[in-house]
Amino acid sequence: MTEELDSMHEECGVMGIFNGENIVRNLATGLYALQHRGQESAGVAATDGEKVRVSKHMGLVADLVQEGKLDSIADNCFAAIGHVRYSSIGSRTLANAQPMLVSCKWGYLAVAHNGNITNAQELRAEMEANGHIFQSTSDSEILLHEISRTKADNLPDAIRIAVKKFKGSFCLIFLTVDTMYVVRDGFGFRPLCFGKRNNSWVFASESCAFDLLGVDYVRDVQPGEFLCINKDGIHQEQLIKKDRKAFCIFEFVYFARPDSRIFEQSADKIRRKMGKKLAEERPVEADIVIPCPDSSTTAALGYSQESKIRFEIGLLRNHYVGRTFIDPSQNIREQKVKLKFNTISGVLKDKRVCLVDDSIVRGTTLKMICKMLREAGAKEVHVRIASPPVRFPCSFGMDFPSPAELVANALAPQEVANMLGVESLGYLSVKGMRECTGAPDDFCGACFDGIYPECGEML
Q1: Do residue 215 and residue 76 come from a single domain?
Q2: CATH code of the domain containing 192
Q3: Residue 136, by phi and psi: left (phi above 0), alpha (psi -120 to 50) or beta?
Q4: In this structure, is residue 361 part of a structural domain?
Q5: Is residue 194 helix, strand or coil?
Q6: What is this structure's pTM?
Q7: Quick check: is 106 in a domain?
Q8: N or C: which terminus of the chain carries fewer CB neighbours within 10 A?
């Protein structure tokens, strides 16, 4: 997706392992697979039965591993949780990195959280008025405060009571000295699954984390489900009940890796269906179909298969560009685009090009890419977007810019095409996108249609 340069990002990835060997090392390996969900910070919390210790670092999982930051918490570990972060709530500081660890009346408690608590600031204001002191600006710390101040007799009940006060999206993995707790919000906005390998239970935002470890996928953690895992096994209960599911459809559009199984379906299969449906709804006369690498590749393949237009690689992406190479004296955005993407002129020259992207937010980066295709000799450029126009903000864990910055709010499709400097632009319809999931009513598409599950109406 080109819009990653236009301030739309994935949120976070969480993972937990209970029981087994080399747990911290295996957890870090799984976090590598979830790195696409957050590149801002990474962390691991581990227990040896007496104490929970945490190690976290600003940067990638590789930085955490290579600097030896996990060595001090790996000894005698029998359970651990991990997190990769991209912030939508809270500033980019180590204090906001996760897992977060506190000591409360029930002992050590660590948490890894993926999602966005929409009433977090309301809860925080009330806590601060009652004397609570916060060390971070993250909504995840508010979760821990809410749990610690309950009048419950034990920690499981405290979690049960606290999470029912939270609105929004949350996949939570808690760790104490001897127990792991897992809970998912009642709508199931964000994905969370679990698997098993021998005597180990493994939880992750996406099943791609299982593949590196040889873990067998068991099932998704169900919306509203509460799990307790300890030496006696795994206990399940339905904690939160909603009248519908509201899986984030943008996970299929862009967030999830295509090799993952999320919401109990293959991301690759759904994304390919979206490309095929796009070809049905928005056909074009072109010589080649090319993707905006890398997240649009699967949709572009689907478009090519349905349209019978030859699939080609016309753009290459450089994954190894750091900020060091950005010269502030030049146009920074243009530098980023040219450093990250390069055209293959032999593929593009004198061709009518159908460029498939998974979504469009601001459109400024896509505009530069279309210009690059022209400069490489493309005779025509037609843009096809494998999702509907993004027109509304998201409160459930996606980092979208403000509505005023969303290009679809300001411009009609033909006006967007004119802005991009292309012959045509076509979006996938909301109805077509939902049909591709096989369960159209089980998904939240508020960023496309403005219908928010918590209120059931358009805002």
Answers
A1: yes
A2: 3.60.20.10
A3: beta
A4: yes
A5: strand
A6: 0.90
A7: yes
A8: C
Is 193 catalytic? The answer is no
pLDDT digits (tens, 9 = 90+) for 212-270: 999 999 999 999 999 999 999 999 999 999 999 999 999 999 999 999 999 999 999 99
> Which residues, given as ranges, of the chain have pLDDT below 50?
3-10, 88-90, 323-329, 456-459
Q: Number of structural domains, the chain?
A: 2
- Three state DSSP letters for 321-353: CCHHHCCCCCCHHHHHHHHHEEECHHHHCCCEE
Produce one character per residue of 7-21: b if its CB has 16 or more CB atoms within 10 Å, e if not. Answer: ebbbbbbbbbbbbbe
* Residue 57: its H or E element: strand 52-58
Nearest C-alpha neighbor of 100 from the set 150, 157, 185, 41: 41
Query: How far apart (Å, rounded) are the C-alpha atoms in residues 139 and 347?
Result: 48
Tell me which residue of 348, 13, 373 sits closest to 207, measured CA to CA.
13
In a domain, residue 178? The reply is yes
Same domain? For 172 and 293 the reply is no
- Listed in sequence order, the DSSP H helices in 164-238 are 208-211
Q: List CB contacts of 426: < 8 A, sequence separation 6 or more.
A: 278, 281, 282, 284, 382, 383, 384, 385, 413
Tokens found for residue 259: 């090799």
In this structure, what token pair is assigned to residue 148? 């610690």
Domain of residue 339 covers 267-439
Distance (Å, rounded) from C-alpha 109 to C-alpha 202?
A: 19
